[in-house]
Amino acid sequence: GAVVSQHPSWVICKSGTSVKIECRSLDFQATTMFWYRQFPKQSLMLMATSNEGSKATYEQGVEKDKFLINHASLTLSTLTVTSAHPEDSSFYICSARETSYEQYFGPGTRLTVT
Amino acid sequence: EDQVTQSPEALRLQEGESSSLNCSYTVSGLRGLFWYRQDPGKGPEFLFTLYSAGEEKEKERLKATLTKKESFLHITAPKPEDSATYLCAVRQGAQKLVFGQGTRLTINP
User: Fold this and answer.
1) CB-CB neighbors (< 8 A) of B42 in chain A
2) B36-57 pLDDT, tens digit each
């Protein structure tokens, strides 16, 4: 149980374009979904928290106009990186929680902006 | 401010050599301490949640313990497949997790 998927697992895009990453909870309904960013050999940095049907709450320093989050249903959240630049290249990971406080993580999406 | 510090940063063991990883935390009222395992290029995998001092949880060769200031992840007779980065996190506020920097564990055959 508690399986979270992400799509795509890796993506390469050109500078200035936008890319969308999907996060799905496969066998449970997610009360809340979270988006993290991770740089090589560093820990996870929370970007935003989202609840189904409401606006995401962004962490300090995260540009909400650049990282658009949509939590359309209890099993799906999307992160869109708009006008991507090379500095946005990173490993993006989503997580989801049901009613308990454990977060279950997706496999991650490697974004490379050229 | 809530803080989580993990040590050592990296640990290399021989297969079968037991050891412990440390997670020290500073929080105003612990509402959950979480251990995760992360393999390279993958998302973290949930291992344990601990809520109160004295609590212990086990899973195969792993045992997590909790005191009022720190948590330990004990690894007994590890195998090469136990090699990974182990992350510790505490719950902050309603549901956010604050992660430590992790311990990179390598088990040599």
Assistant:
1) 107-108
2) 999 999 999 999 999 999 999 9
